[in-house]
Amino acid sequence: MSANAPAHLTAGTPLQRQLAGTEPARPGALDALREAQRMFQAGHRVDMQAIARKLDVDRATLYRWVGSREQLLAEVLWHLMAKTVQRLREPAPTGERPTAADVITGTAEAVMTNLGMQHFLEREGDLALRLLTTKASEFQHRLIQLIGDVVEADRRDGRLRSAVPAADLPYVLVRIMESYAYLSLITGDEPDAARAASVIRALLPTC
Hints:
Helices cover 67% and strands 0% of the residues. The longest helix has 21 residues. By secondary structure, it is mainly alpha-helical. The chain folds into two domains: 52 residues; 136 residues. It is globular. The termini are far apart.
């Protein structure tokens, strides 16, 4: 921008100037996340150097934004999972809200059929299990909390009569989902959405 630009074009925050089109938009951490999500969903390896090159920043800047590659992958996985659960929780056109069993079985099936997840498990299975199922990342802890919210909504509405203690149920459900979604890495068998659904529905009988 010219040093002689009118004051009203140079005033305000960088965001305000970008929205007004008077300052070029600069990439940031959210752009890095979006690019990583695009790579993942396309079935490609999430490559930090490629992301930095795409955003026209150096790798040191990228790592400052997102942490390590593992931290970025954990966020990609979490955003994918949270978006899936949110979509499955949306009421039907009739206004009827899906049951917890519907949401959780749908989530398990979505994980098993997602192209990006399939390639990630095939290519980096050990890393995937570590990020998805252990304390190496916050993913599992956040998923247990989210599934707990889904289950609690049914409990509040009087639609749930599970015999499993309320404090244990979200953890048990997440472990069931993991057991069937990542079956190829655990036993060598193919992931099985139908088997997962039968167990999940047995744990979540409706009133």
